[in-house]
Amino acid sequence: MKREVKGRFLFLLATITLSILFLLPSTPIYSVLPDWWGNIFPDKGVTLGLDLRGGMHLILEVESEKAVENAIDRNMASLKDALEDEEISVSSIQRDGKEITLSFDSENNEKITELLDDKYTSLVTAREEGGEKVLTFRKSEEKRILETSTLQALETIRNRIDEFGVTEPLIQQQGANQILIQLPGVSEPERAIELIGKTAQLEFKLLNETSAILSQFPSRLDPDAAEQFFTEFKEKIDPEDEILFERIVHKETGDITKTPYLVKKQAVLAGDLLTDARVSFGEFNEPYVSITFDPVGSRLFEKVTDENRRRRLAIVLDKSVKSAPRIQEKISGGRAQITGTYTTQEAKDLAIILRAGSLPAPVKIIQNVTVGPSLGKDSIRKGLIAGGFGSLLVVVFMVVYYRLSGLLADFAMVLNLILLVGALAALNATLTLPGIAGIILTAGLAVDANVLILERIREELRAGRPVRLAVDSGYNKAFSSIFDSNVTTLITGFALFMFGTGPIKGFAVTLSLGVMINLFTALVGTKAVYDFINGRKRLESLSI
Fold it and tell me: Under a CB-based contact definition with an 8 Å cutoff, are residues 274 and 294 in contact?
């Protein structure tokens, strides 16, 4: 029996030691420990949630319909190239909403139909009349794009946030087309929003430099006049062209102007062929973004620059011209530069966005809440005060009502809290304000289990049983009640974790861990102490 009690004590001591080791990184003591400590022992502790640490809470809505339109654009561009390769002439090919309209001579109808059936199975003919076909996506394909656009946006945003350097972000889908984002500890909310929400559709488009209407284009416009200029000229230009602007910031005065460009709607190259983007510095230390294409992109870029020498190529990001250099010669190697009036930070952010990839559709912010660090510190302070005050009341009540046995129950409660916080640190769990509430509730549950045991022991002592038999019988009879109540609480905790979000999950994690640890401390921890005392000296009475 003594060997069994000794084994239980050693196991208790080992679990307490492990809990303290895992908890150390979350305490001020960790900062004074030697460097080698983190290489041997755990170096990650409990992570504070948004409500305790401060940061950003965003809910984004993905405009999935735009993803369908973008996919239609890509199919239209591919179809146009395929028609040229097959030497099938068409009068025009245009997109209107989610539809592609093909105009052609009647004798080409059969060839076009064969091409569509062979290579474009996701497209279906919605209407056909004479020398015109109206194509759209099949219902199944449109549904697939709508469903996957949110998942693609979520992964792209996660990649951007990882590059941004936020530790322990919460990023998850919410509903059909919403994304919940929590960024603890973010000190630059405006920059984070700009980084997360930018669609980042990078395109390379040739300029139309032969149109007669260019003589009416000014070299510079005030930002306020740009919209009026666009409205005035958008109906006068060729349907295959579009007007885009380059935003220019004067380095010395900071004045902002816009330069209008007439560019081809059809992009000759897209940003999805990029493999890398990084910040470099020019001759006069001005930052620019150096980009690298994959093998397919390299070949396309080489072909475009070879076939369009002396023409200007606009580098367009989210419908805004970043630069429009003139192609002097064929560019091999798959490398290009995006120059402009960037600060170093702006160039870094642009490189992050391009590396992470473009969003499949634009996103809009429908909720934006910033939690200040001071509010988080206040929440921690009040949570600790509430927990300490509640625990003190419990300790005093147990000692007054159950005497030395109550003190042993208090030991079980403290042991429960140490093991619980250690377990949270071991799992690198995120502690939230509801999580603190879960810890406080766990303290109450720990005492509740011991109350059941102590009342059973009292009954056995009143019946005249010896102390040792009364203690054994008290634990045996209380076991079923303690086990039942804790298991039902554990089931509730799992349900909260499965179906809850954010803070509710934090509460569920601490509650579930606390319940499992409570079973151990109540049925194993305190019993080991009673057996140890009885083993050293046969008790004639028990302070209870």
Answer: yes
